[in-house]
């Protein structure tokens, strides 16, 4: 919602066809550096849904042919801090932009969040490895090595901030919590 308010993204209606890359949990291929031209010419969208309610999300009503998954990455937003594969929409955008070679654009989005700088810091080794892949098969191999622990992604990470408050701590505003944004382009 914050990125939408700032004019970086716009919502898509359910059922509306989208010709760009769509980051979705039902994608069959992983986003890769080969998606660079598609993203620059047609854009990128994310499916905004709660990780706890994936079964209730009407994926069949979403129209597009370039559905992609993200590889293994760790969230740094205040809601899912430290959880693998549970990124906010802003983190998903930034990850995809980094992988296709446009880290500069992802930086612009992440700077809008207090926790934003941590995402690239924590995931730098993984994102660098994914960006160097030549094929989707290479991406899957590297992804599997990070998931299994064969490659340690945190060897160089040194957090520069305190952990977010627990759920029992006092609540803060949606902007401070890095709430998820709507379906966006």
Structure description:
- It is a single chain.
- The chain is mainly α and 185 residues long.
- The protein has one domain (1-148).
- Helix content is 34%, strand content 6%.
- The protein has helices spanning 2-5, 36-42, 89-99, 103-110, 116-131, 136-148, 174-177, and strands at 21-23, 29-30, 44-46, 67-69.
Brief digest:
This protein is mainly alpha-helical and 185 residues long. 34% of the residues lie in helices and 6% in strands.
Shape: globular
Instruction: State the low-pLDDT regions, or none.
Output: 166-185
Mean pLDDT: 79
- Strand percentage, roughly? 5-15%
Return the domain count.
1
For the biggest sheet, the summary is:
4 strands, parallel
Indicate the percent of residues in helices: 25-40%
The separation of the N and C termini measures 12 Å
Give the strand order, joined by hyphens, for the main sheet. Answer: 2-4-1-3
GO biological process, one term: maturation of SSU-rRNA
Pfam family, one: Ribo_biogen_C
GO molecular function: rRNA small subunit aminocarboxypropyltransferase activity
Protein name: 16S/18S rRNA aminocarboxypropyltransferase Tsr3 C-terminal domain-containing protein
């Amino acid at each position: 919602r914050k990125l939408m308010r700032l004019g970086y993204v716009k919502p898509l209606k359910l059922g509306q066809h989208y010709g760009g890359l769509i980051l979705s949990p039902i994608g069959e291929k992983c986003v890769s550096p080969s998606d660079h031209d598609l993203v620059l010419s047609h854009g990128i969208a994310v499916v905004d849904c709660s990780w706890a309610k994936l079964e209730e999300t009407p994926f069949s009503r979403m129209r597009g042919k370039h559905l992609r998954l993200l590889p293994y990455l760790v969230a740094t937003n205040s809601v899912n801090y430290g959880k693998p594969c549970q990124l906010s929409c802003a983190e998903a955008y930034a990850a995809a932009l980094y992988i296709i070679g446009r880290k500069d654009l992802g930086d612009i989005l992440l700077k809008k969040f207090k926790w934003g700088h941590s995402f690239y810091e924590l995931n730098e080794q993984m994102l660098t490895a994914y960006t160097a892949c030549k094929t989707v098969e290479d991406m899957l191999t590297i992804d599997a090595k990070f998931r299994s622990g064969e490659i340690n992604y945190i060897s160089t990470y040194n957090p520069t901030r305190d952990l977010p408050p627990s759920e029992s701590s006092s609540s803060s505003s949606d902007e401070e919590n890095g709430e998820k944004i709507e379906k966006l382009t």
